[in-house]
Amino acid sequence: MPCDLILVLDAQSPREVVPALRQLQGTVRWVKVGLEMYTACGPDAVREIAGLGFDVFLDLKLHDIPNTVAKAVESACKLPIGMLTLHTCGGREMMQWAVKAQQQHKPDLLLLGVTVLTSMSAPGLAETGVAAPPDQQVVRLGRLAAEAGLRGLVCSPLEIAPLRAVLPPEVALVTPGIRPRDAKADDQTRIMTPSEAVRAGANFLVVGRPIFKAPDPVAAAKSILAEIAAA
User: Fold this and answer.
1) What is the residue-level pLDDT of the chain in tens, covering all 231 positions?
2) CA 58, CA 43: separation in Å to the nearest integer?
3) Torsion over CA of 206, 208, 210 and 216, rounded to 10 degrees?
4) CA angle 181, 163, 194 (to 5 degrees)
5) What is the Cα–Cα distance from 47 to 96, expressed in whole angstroms?
6) Looking at residue 190, what DSSP letter applies?
7) Distance of CA 193 to CAs 116, 200, 213, 218, 231, Å?
8) How far is CA 78 from the centre of its chain?
9) How many other β-carbons are positioned within 10 Å of the β-carbon of residue 139?
10) Beta-carbon neighbour count of residue 169 at 10 Å?
11) Whole-prediction pTM value?
12) Cα dist from 23 to 187, 209, 211, 220, whole Å
């Protein structure tokens, strides 16, 4: 499975990013719409960005009782999206209900399970009552997600290798926490460079600020894509 780049849209409105997106048309295929924009603008934001010709990764990290999550997945399936996230810590039944809804309403949608957020360190995880270190918790949740029928996971690049050791090869791994060597870590604590993540077995690299904050976003995106291709 080849590796591709997903551009994070850290903004409250499509209007804030449309100028940059127009420049990036033809360079970047995937963009991620998260809670900030979706909460501010709703489904119309997804439709507007998809209308520019991008494939949309809707990152809502759904986490609720099984029926509610299944209904949310059903609603999301009506939108022009290619990926959707839910929290694996919602448990097996919740994920199974989500998968059933996805398969019934949008079979080509890649439903992704979020394992441990890349902003979480071992001490932070321990404060929530999880004694296991992040890598062990990621593997535990990743196995559970695959057993529940999910075809993809979101994980730190540091957990790619342990997951690849235990999961079917067709499970896609989407990795935030990607930073070129000269970029700031920002609020990410478990990070890798693009080439390191590709060699570890990532299928999608999620990058935001290193592109949008660059003096030339197109050049920054092309540089990361070139690093992916070389790796």
Assistant:
1) 679 999 999 889 999 999 999 999 999 999 999 999 999 999 999 999 999 999 999 999 999 999 999 999 999 999 999 999 999 999 999 999 999 999 999 999 999 999 988 778 899 999 999 989 888 999 999 999 999 999 999 998 889 999 999 999 999 999 988 877 665 544 444 568 899 999 999 999 999 888 988 889 999 999 999 999 987
2) 10
3) 120
4) 15
5) 27
6) S
7) 19, 11, 17, 18, 11
8) 20
9) 19
10) 7
11) 0.92
12) 27, 16, 12, 12
Locus of tokens 């935001």: 208
**How close are the terminal C-alpha atoms of the chain, in Å?**
13
Total Cβ atoms within 10 A of residue 180? 16
- In 10 A of CB 75, how many CB atoms? 12
Q: Are 46 and 38 in contact (CB under 8 A)?
A: yes
Six token digits for residue 29: 């295929």
Residues 219, 153: Cα–Cα separation, whole Å: 29
How far apart (Å, rounded) are the C-alpha atoms in residues 37 and 129? 31
Three state DSSP letters for 140-178: HHHHHHHHHCCCEEECCHHHHHHHHHHCCCCCEEEECCE
Q: What's the DSSP call for residue 37?
A: H
Secondary structure letter of residue 216 according to DSSP: S
Domains of the chain: 4-230 (3.20.20.70)
Beta strands in the chain (DSSP E): 4-9, 30-33, 55-62, 83-87, 110-114, 152-154, 172-175, 204-207
Angle, CA of 111, 116 and 117, to the nearest 5°: 90
Q: Which entry of 61, 71, 100, 222 is annotated as an active-site residue?
A: 61
Active site residue 184: no
Residues sharing a CB contact under 8 Å with residue 209, sequence separation 6 or more, in sequence order? 8, 10, 183, 184, 186
